[in-house]
Amino acid sequence: MAATRPRARIQPRGARCAVGLKRAYEHPSPGDGMRVLVDRIWPRGLSKEDLEVDLWLKDVAPSDALRRWYGHTPSRWESFAAQYRAELEQRADLLHLLDELRRRGHITLLYGARDTDRNNAVVLRDVLEERRCARRTRKETGKDTMGQ
Which domain holds residue 62? Predict the structure, then answer.
């Protein structure tokens, strides 16, 4: 029987926690917190036990068409990132879920791409950080209303 990793510790609501990035092929570490796979396709050659993922959010990954078009071609990175951001705007429910997980503890977004600087998890992490900063700014200026 394979040893199981202890479940991620959830912190109280409101705690400010970071979002980490890690290739799915890297070994888990205690500091990973909740491990969330954000690829549409399961990483090749890894079993569910090997990956030790807490949550697989394949619907937050880029669409199949966008993923295929990008093909990890560096010259397409800027366009890919912009198009993926546009797709993420249509997935507010999943972004809200990730925001909530982040507020409760550290989360690590797992991805399978070889390029650690240009992949969907990088864009997603940046979007989550921007949302956190925008929310903080609205609270500080007193504009945190239901409509915003």
Answer: 19-137
